[in-house]
Specification:
Strand order of the largest sheet: 3-2-1-4-5
Number of domains: 2
Oligomer: single chain
Low-confidence stretches: none
CATH topology of the largest domain: Rossmann fold
Strand content: 5-15%
CATH architecture of the largest domain: 3-Layer(aba) Sandwich
Helix content: 40-55%
Distance between the termini: 38 Å
CATH class of the largest domain: Alpha Beta
Number of helices: 10
Largest sheet: 5 strands, parallel
Number of strands: 5
Order of helices and strands: HHHHEHHEHEHEHEH
CATH superfamily of the largest domain: HUPs
Length: 267
Amino acid sequence: MFFVLSKTVGTMLLPTNFLLELGLIAALLLATRWAKWGRRLFVVTILLLAICAFSPLGNYLLYPLESRFPKWDDSKGAPDGIVVLGGPIDADISVIHNTPITRAAADRIIAAAVLARRYPNARVLFTGGSANLISNDAKEGDFASEILISLGVPKERLIIERLSRNTYENAIFSKQLVTPKPGEHWLLVTSAYHMPRSVGLFRKAGFPVEPYPVDWRVGHWDDLFSFENIALVGLGRTDVAVREWLGLVAYRLRGRTDQLLPGPERS
């Protein structure tokens, strides 16, 4: 049920979708006796859409997520394993063209390949199935190995998890696959904005990980005062941020994380 709600209600609440839904309601009201309210709603919708598209709102929402964890300190020594979260591969399009097709967040796979070459004894686990509401046979994991092998990661070092549909299942299924031993060091590679939620879920699942954030969407703090001149970029950034905050709240309410905004562990 939680997965279904996240793919329906959660998707409807994303700023771009929600404001377009309000715009459609406003258009319908224009043809009724409530036309005055329709005009008002239409104006409000356009203003909110412009704020999401051109203002620093998306940056404001992303910055506390992306700055939550520092870059990984390699002085800690070589990791025993590397966990790469799915998201970069469009499995449906990959199946159609019979070749791996990446989209946003490809940094996750690139970083994993770089780490694998730097630490030749570390196991590499890619976790990602299909996030589609209606399941099909297209799985990210089926194409991840092809990409990683082409980037120089030996096949015998790869572990592929292809059944997970969301980050919660990434954590649960990953632990079941590798059964990390006490004292082992596993890196978690995912987008910086996604790291707080991911770390919280892995901790709750009993899989201690060391954050290795990649794929930043915001630069320095001065980006909080910069406006966007391309609407789609601003809207996309705002959608990503709102989706992540909704996920943090939902998982906390479900008891799947111990904190609303997980952060570095205190020594």
